[in-house]
């Protein structure tokens, strides 16, 4: 989540975390379901609007 908040791309996140791109995409899909969103940007904007980015 922290890396998404830093506006990193999926490939960048995978490289930073030393995992496959597919792994990152799967984790993002899980977050989308939990937040009830269809786009990653929606999650990021919600977290910023709630002012809880410091938790990540």
Briefly say what this structure is.
This protein has helices at 2-5, 10-17, 21-35, 40-49. With 56 residues, it is mainly alpha-helical.
Descriptive overview:
- The chain has helices spanning 2-5, 10-17, 21-35, 40-49.
- It is mainly alpha-helical.
- It has one domain: Winged helix-like DNA-binding domain superfamily/Winged helix DNA-binding domain (Arc Repressor Mutant, subunit A, Orthogonal Bundle), CATH 1.10.10.
- Helix 2 crosses helix 3 (21-35).
- The longest helix is centred in the middle third of the chain and has 15 residues, at 21-35.
- The N and C termini lie close together (6 Å).
- The relative contact order is 0.17.
- The model has no long low-confidence stretch (mean pLDDT 95).
Q: Give the proportion of residues in helices.
A: 55-70%
As for the CATH topology, it is: Arc Repressor Mutant, subunit A
The largest sheet is:
none
Name the CATH class.
Mainly Alpha
Sheet-strand content, in percent, reads: under 5%
CATH architecture heading: Orthogonal Bundle
Order of helices and strands: HHHH
- The number of distinct structural domains comes to 1
How many strand segments? 0
Q: Looking at the chains present, what oligomeric state does this protein adopt?
A: single chain
CA-atom Rg in angstroms:
11 Å
- Spans of at least 5 consecutive residues whose pLDDT stays below 50 are none
Q: Give the helix tally.
A: 4
Output the structural class. mainly alpha
Principal-axes shape call: globular
Distance between the termini: 6 Å
The CATH superfamily title? Winged helix-like DNA-binding domain superfamily/Winged helix DNA-binding domain
| Rounded mean pLDDT score | 95
